[in-house]
Amino acid sequence: MAGNFFLVGLMGAGKTTVGRALARRAGKTFYDSDHEIEARTGVRVATIFEIEGEERFRDRETSVIGDLVKLNDIVLATGGGAVLRQENRQLLRRHGTVIYLRAPIDDLLARTLHDKNRPLLQTADPRAKLEALFNERDPLYREVADLVIDTSQQNVNQLIIDLEHALADHLNGRAG
Ligand SMILES: Nc1ncnc2c1ncn2[C@@H]1O[C@H](COP(=O)(O)OP(=O)(O)OP(=O)(O)O)[C@@H](O)[C@H]1O
Ligand SMILES: O=C(O)C1=C[C@@H](O)[C@@H](O)[C@H](O)C1
Ligand SMILES: [Mg+2]
């Protein structure tokens, strides 16, 4: 399948996990914008939030996304908040096929509970935070996406096979 694939969705939706597997099967190079920011700065995302604050992190994110979308034949897992900036949404739409991985709050919560590198969820009530983020961002994920894929019901292998079929249909103009 030709072109770039960009994955968007909330923390725990599976962007990194699914993106890496999809890239391997499609013979594309995998990137993760959070990992790229960590590679460039030498520190974890949580540390950037702590020291520089969210807005400066968002600047770094836009810069990394701007660089990566210009590459060819990549799969890019974007950070959960990448869609907040219109500039990022435009970059993603212009340079590839955008896939929104969507999952219920319960699944997102279970998948992110023990990972301390998600600074926005280090609160007394991570469920309430995820709900607020979902309400704010679901319309933005939908706006930018060519395809919406539910990641709740299946194991990762089945999910990737379904995603590949949906992508093939979309690219052949049969759906999406
Ligand atoms: N479809 C799935 N079913 C069950 N577990 C999953 C699924 N997708 C991902 N996971 C698990 O959920 C956790 C979070 O997944 P992952 O790190 O890929 O999410 P993410 O969307 O990249 O999150 P972030 O935005 O925080 O980077 C991982 O432990 C992963 O193994
Ligand atoms: O949802 C978010 O705003 C974030 C998600 C992560 O991927 C990281 O980009 C960071 O923790 C912020
Ligand atoms: Mg990730």
TrEMBL record:
<comment type="function">
    <text>Catalyzes the specific phosphorylation of the 3-hydroxyl group of shikimic acid using ATP as a cosubstrate.</text>
</comment>
<feature type="binding site">
    <location>
        <position position="118"/>
    </location>
    <ligand>
        <name>ATP</name>
    </ligand>
</feature>
<keyword id="KW-0057">Aromatic amino acid biosynthesis</keyword>
<dbReference type="InterPro" id="IPR031322">
    <property type="entry name" value="Shikimate/glucono_kinase"/>
</dbReference>
<keyword id="KW-0028">Amino-acid biosynthesis</keyword>
<keyword id="KW-0067">ATP-binding</keyword>
<protein>
    <recommendedName>
        <fullName>Shikimate kinase</fullName>
        <ecNumber>2.7.1.71</ecNumber>
    </recommendedName>
</protein>
<keyword id="KW-0963">Cytoplasm</keyword>
<comment type="pathway">
    <text>Metabolic intermediate biosynthesis; chorismate biosynthesis; chorismate from D-erythrose 4-phosphate and phosphoenolpyruvate: step 5/7.</text>
</comment>
<feature type="binding site">
    <location>
        <position position="154"/>
    </location>
    <ligand>
        <name>ATP</name>
    </ligand>
</feature>
<feature type="binding site">
    <location>
        <position position="80"/>
    </location>
    <ligand>
        <name>substrate</name>
    </ligand>
</feature>
<keyword id="KW-0418">Kinase</keyword>
<feature type="binding site">
    <location>
        <begin position="12"/>
        <end position="17"/>
    </location>
    <ligand>
        <name>ATP</name>
    </ligand>
</feature>
<keyword id="KW-0479">Metal-binding</keyword>
<dbReference type="Pfam" id="PF01202">
    <property type="entry name" value="SKI"/>
</dbReference>
<dbReference type="InterPro" id="IPR000623">
    <property type="entry name" value="Shikimate_kinase/TSH1"/>
</dbReference>
<dbReference type="InterPro" id="IPR023000">
    <property type="entry name" value="Shikimate_kinase_CS"/>
</dbReference>
<comment type="subunit">
    <text>Monomer.</text>
</comment>
<keyword id="KW-0460">Magnesium</keyword>
<feature type="binding site">
    <location>
        <position position="58"/>
    </location>
    <ligand>
        <name>substrate</name>
    </ligand>
</feature>
<comment type="similarity">
    <text>Belongs to the shikimate kinase family.</text>
</comment>
<dbReference type="InterPro" id="IPR027417">
    <property type="entry name" value="P-loop_NTPase"/>
</dbReference>
<dbReference type="GO" id="GO:0016301">
    <property type="term" value="F:kinase activity"/>
</dbReference>
<keyword id="KW-0808">Transferase</keyword>
<feature type="binding site">
    <location>
        <position position="34"/>
    </location>
    <ligand>
        <name>substrate</name>
    </ligand>
</feature>
<keyword id="KW-0547">Nucleotide-binding</keyword>
<feature type="binding site">
    <location>
        <position position="16"/>
    </location>
    <ligand>
        <name>Mg(2+)</name>
    </ligand>
</feature>
<feature type="binding site">
    <location>
        <position position="137"/>
    </location>
    <ligand>
        <name>substrate</name>
    </ligand>
</feature>
